[in-house]
């Protein structure tokens, strides 16, 4: 199989890469609010993301669990933390493996080693498919609630869960990393729209904070 | 807005789903043996039920899986949700 792989750890190439929301960096900084109504937005650039598809009940699952260092998540919302990687549940047979430290091509070759010959499974480097926006602060939940159909109350949406949903009509993966801290993963082409949508949704809290 | 319980993701707003029309329409066993009229009936003719209707939905904003729903076309109330490939569940007072 021929693939275009970009090594984020290669400094020469890294210097030339432009992330999907890089042009909004200044707008994100300006939109930040501190204090009791605080909310901040930034882009986490170039996380490695590998799409993993493996059938329900496949023997490959046990081998893959050994490679990532954790059982694959079993139900909606579950996030499994392994060695240097995090695995998000996308559907019963689809997962997203995310890493900050392992390069895409390396992670792909590690995971492929867990697949049996002729088995119904796929491992594809999707690092360029999505970007990551990090929304943090006491008002983060209120900002998301303006455009997300889910119940985001901590009683229902606990820290350490990730779900696929919509924010401001954009299909995203919403990952609650911690209380008041979210990673939002839109497809790259939506990053500009969603970034501006979030900046607009945050504006109200700047007024509240200054008053 | 209806709240649909995806078999994998749980209750979500209707806006996360797309509609797929009538469920349990089997693909013809030998499509090339059909007359144009029979093929046209398979492609375009569907029930227009008043009451409980078996229909397909896909959770396009979530797990992207297709599943079947029994929905009352008068009240919009969802009577049952079941996975693709499972038989239509029987309900009290449902003429099928």
Describe this entry's structure for a reader.
The complex is a heterodimer of chains A (211) and B (96). Chain A has 6 helices and 10 strands; from the N terminus they run ααββαβββαββαβββα. With 211 residues, chain A is an alpha+beta fold. The radius of gyration of chain A is 18 Å and the shape is globular. The mean pLDDT of chain A is 92. Chain B has 96 residues and is mainly β. In chain B, the strands form 2 sheets. Chain B has a 4-stranded antiparallel sheet, with no helix packed on it. Chain B has a two-stranded antiparallel sheet with strand order 1-2. Chain B is globular. The model of chain B has no long low-confidence stretch (mean pLDDT 93). Chains A and B meet through β8 of A and β2 of B.
Q: Largest interface, per-chain counts?
A: A-B, 13 and 13 residues
Alpha carbon gyration radius of chain A: 18 Å
Report the strand count of chain B.
Answer: 6
Query: What is the straight-line distance between the termini of chain A?
Result: 59 Å
Q: Look at the structure and give the mean pLDDT of chain A.
A: 92
Oligomer: heterodimer
InterPro entries (chain A): SoxG, TrmE/GcvT-like
Protein name (chain A): Sarcosine oxidase subunit gamma
Organism (chain B): Nocardioides turkmenicus
GO biological process, one term (chain B): tetrahydrofolate metabolic process
Write the topology of this structure.
The complex is a heterodimer of chains A (211) and B (96).
Chain A: H1 11-16, H2 25-31, E1 40-44, E2 48-54, H3 60-68, E3 79-81, E4 86-91, E5 94-99, H4 104-112, E6 121-125, E7 132-136, H5 140-145, E8 161-167, E9 170-178, E10 181-186, H6 191-210
Antiparallel strand pairs in A: 1-7, 2-5, 2-6, 3-4, 4-5, 7-10, 8-9, 9-10
Chain B: E1 3-6, E2 10-13, E3 18-22, H1 36-44, E4 52-58, E5 66-72, E6 78-83
Antiparallel strand pairs in B: 1-2, 3-4, 4-5, 5-6
Q: Short summary of the structure?
A:
Chain A: InterPro entries: SoxG, TrmE/GcvT-like. The complex is a heterodimer of chains A (211) and B (96). Chain A is of the alpha+beta class.
């Amino acid at each position: 199989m021929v693939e275009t792989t970009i090594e984020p750890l290669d400094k020469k190439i890294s210097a030339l890469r432009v992330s999907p929301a890089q042009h909004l960096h200044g707008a994100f900084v300006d939109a930040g609010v501190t204090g009791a109504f605080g909310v901040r937005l930034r882009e986490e650039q170039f996380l490695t993301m590998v799409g993993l598809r493996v059938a329900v009940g496949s023997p490959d699952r046990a081998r893959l669990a050994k490679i990532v260092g954790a059982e694959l998540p079993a139900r909606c919302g579950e996030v499994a933390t392994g060695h240097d990687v995090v695995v998000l549940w996308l559907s019963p047979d689809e997962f997203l493996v995310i890493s900050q430290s392992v390069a895409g091509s390396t992670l792909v070759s590690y995971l492929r080693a867990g697949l049996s010959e002729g088995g119904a499974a796929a491992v594809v480097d999707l690092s360029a498919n999505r970007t990551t926006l990090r929304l943090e602060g006491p008002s983060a939940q209120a900002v998301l609630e303006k455009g997300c159909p889910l119940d985001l109350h901590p009683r229902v949406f606990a820290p350490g869960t990730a779900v696929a949903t919509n924010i401001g009509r954009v299909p995203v993966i919403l990952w609650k990393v911690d209380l008041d801290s979210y990673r939002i993963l839109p497809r790259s082409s939506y990053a500009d729209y969603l970034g501006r949508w979030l900046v607009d949704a945050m504006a109200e809290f700047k007024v509240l904070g200054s008053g | 807005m209806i709240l649909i319980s995806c078999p994998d993701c749980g209750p979500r707003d209707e806006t996360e789903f797309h509609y797929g029309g009538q469920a349990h329409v089997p693909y013809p066993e030998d499509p090339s043996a059909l007359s144009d009229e029979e093929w046209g009936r398979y492609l375009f003719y569907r029930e227009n039920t008043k009451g409980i209707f078996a229909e397909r939905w896909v959770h396009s904003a979530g797990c992207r899986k297709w599943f079947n729903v029994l929905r009352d076309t008068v009240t919009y109330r969802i009577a049952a949700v079941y996975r693709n490939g499972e038989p239509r569940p029987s309900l009290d007072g449902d003429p099928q």
